[in-house]
Write a structure and sequence with these properties.
By secondary structure, this protein is α/β, with parallel strands linked by helices. The protein has ten helices and seven strands.
Amino acid sequence: MDALTRKSYEMRRDIIEMVHLSRAGHVGGDLSVVDILTTLYFGVMNVSPQQVKDPDRDRFLLSKGHCADALYCVLGEKGFFNKEEAIKTFSQYQSRYIGHPNMEVPGVEMNSGSLGHGLSVGVGMALAAKMDQRAYRTYVVLGDGEMAEGSNYEGMMAAGHYHLDNLCATVDLNRLQISGTTEQVMNSASLADKFRDFGWHVISVQDGNNCSQLQAAYEQAAAYKGKPTAIIANTVKGKGVSFMENQISWHHGVMTEEQYQQAVKEIEEVLQGE
């Protein structure tokens, strides 16, 4: 097992603990996006707790903000704050680790809530880097259900118009959202074509839960000049826990004690069986 894959499963273990303790969170989406977050924070981006005020740090925006619990686990592991505090107080009264990213948490670049805003904010950050002649890159992660929001398409158009090759958007394509499949609710097929029509370079990652494939895609994105890059990551909702995988009911679900023990057991077996 390579280092990034091991790290992603360690993050899965933390996510399961956080969700179980809080009786809250969006565990299915957490488990589909965690490999993307792990790859970015531990294999791609120029970010660290020592750089929170550095104007040349890379920017990261979790537009699918309901998966904040996964982001908190990764930021804590990266050293931005005490991870155990986040795990034990997530979604609790007066905790700063609430259900969507907020800028009271070190390392968070944007408050989020309603879906569909992250890409346009990312466009602004990327455009500012061009205007200020800064070298930082901006990374935005979106959900596929979120792509029904019209504001995304305004952002896609602007990014293509301004040739923002310092912007990389990743779509967590797990094909499930809270009320059904994306095909049933609002068909998000041909996302790659939609991005291309707005002037983006597009990379499709066959296994979006494979850290090596993701890292190769991000390296290709950084090297591509003249256009923003969209990475379409084909993921599995609930990845890593058998009874959650590809199950709509685990978009937002609370585990029984038995389910919690099974989830931990399955993740530990992967970590110990490398």
